[in-house]
Design a protein that fits this description.
It is built from ten helices and 13 strands. It has a seven-stranded mixed sheet. Helix 2 runs parallel beside helix 3. The chain starts with a helix and ends in a 10-residue tail after the last strand. The protein has 320 residues and is an alpha+beta fold. It is globular. Strand 1 and strand 2 form a beta hairpin. The chain binds adenosine-5'-diphosphate and magnesium ion (MG). Adenosine-5'-diphosphate binds next to strand 4 and strand 5. The site of adenosine-5'-diphosphate (ADP) has 13 residues, from strand 4 and strand 5.
């Protein structure tokens, strides 16, 4: 049974997943009406997932819903913002109720966990494309920006790197991780945005970014915007057992450094705040690792565990 656009919106999206008292008018009119809380700045971000570009055709709809919300939450996390409202532009090849039910549940579960209300959107026919916009709040002047890193800062990251990249290699038949496949696949398809960790860095970190395009590229953005460079100690990179195994077999540092889709946070912290940041990140439920230092000289240098230097251009990094 084909649903009309209105039935589709009513059935799967109109409840907004959760109710917030800063929403004056949600889904159903020409515009949503919203009240930014007094004394807060509005943080806005948007991301698009295109079938065949950002996910495999036929991908699990629940995972797609989760990921569309997660990648945007990760951007808010990187600014230290608290999530609030979402809008959803959905382009669908048809109206398949099972697909919509699972997709809506994937978005909704994560929305409710972070108290995000869906307050509007647009629905059109065409190749499957999911565009989600998120709005959040942050204390004036306190957002974690990319441009605040200073020479001498320590570079920290949450979680582990390269798990999603390993899942992609395995799913595309380029590597057989058999025993850990379900775990790395979950890291690829159901990333947990580090919202509480990002919040906890406010007032402590000089700069932050979420790692969506790989550590080298994203740390490169911090360095470029801050007018600095960095040195990384690769022996300190936080790697899960399956990624450790992959590295031991292939010696391929470019995978954990550049594969992307990690959705961990990378931040620069003055040494005096090191212990406070460790406590704050751990209290948010994340692991933390110190992987290098911000320096004056531009470019990113990577020291290998054996004392040599990695050729970062060969590792997929072409920034400077
Ligand atoms: P208009 O034609 O005035 O833009 P629409 O008919 O597209 O309005 O949408 C009707 C209502 O449903 C609006 O409030 C809109 O924000 C909401 N809406 C449409 N598509 C979606 C969607 N995919 N998710 C959430 N809300 C949606
Ligand atoms: Mg419309």
């Amino acid at each position: 049974m084909a649903l009309s656009e209105f039935d589709l919106i009513r059935r799967y999206f109109a409840d907004g997943f959760c109710g917030r008292n800063d929403v004056i008018l949600g889904i159903g009119d020409d515009c949503a009406l919203l009240q930014v809380p007094a004394g807060q700045e509005l943080a806005v971000t948007i991301d698009t997932l295109v079938e065949g570009v950002h996910f495999f055709p036929g991908a699990d709809p629940g995972s797609l819903g989760h990921k569309a919300m997660a990648v945007n939450l990760s951007d808010l996390a990187a600014m230290g913002a608290t999530p609030a409202w979402a809008t959803l532009a959905l382009t669908l090849p048809g109206s398949n109720p099972d697909w919509l039910q699972a997709f809506s549940r994937g978005i909704g579960d994560l929305s409710r966990r972070h108290q995000v209300q869906l307050i509007g959107g647009d629905t059109t026919r065409g190749g499957l494309t999911i565009t989600l916009q998120l709005h959040g709040f942050v204390e004036p002047g306190r957002a974690l920006r990319r441009d605040g890193a200073r020479a001498g800062d320590l570079i920290g990251v949450t979680g582990t790197l390269g798990d999603a990249g390993l899942a992609l290699l395995a799913l595309s038949g380029q590597y057989g991780v058999i025993d850990a496949l379900e775990w790395v696949r979950r890291r690829l398809e159901r990333p947990e945005p580090r919202v509480a960790a990002g919040r906890s860095l406010i007032g402590l970190a000089h700069a932050a970014i979420d790692i969506s395009d790989g550590l080298l590229a994203d740390l490169g953005h911090i360095c470029e915007r801050s007018g600095t460079g960095a040195t990384l100690q690769l022996a300190r990179l936080p790697l899960s057992p399956p990624v450790e195994r992959y590295l031991a077999e292939r010696g391929d540092w470019s995978m954990p450094l550049s594969a992307g889709d990690d959705y961990e946070l990378c931040f620069s912290v003055p040494p005096r705040a090191q212990r406070a940041v460790e406590g704050a990140i751990r209290a948010s439920g994340c692991a933390i690792s110190w992987i290098g230092t911000i320096e004056q000289a531009p470019g990113i240098r990577c020291l290998l565990p054996d004392g040599g230097t990695l050729d970062v251009a060969a590792a997929g990094y072409e920034h400077f």
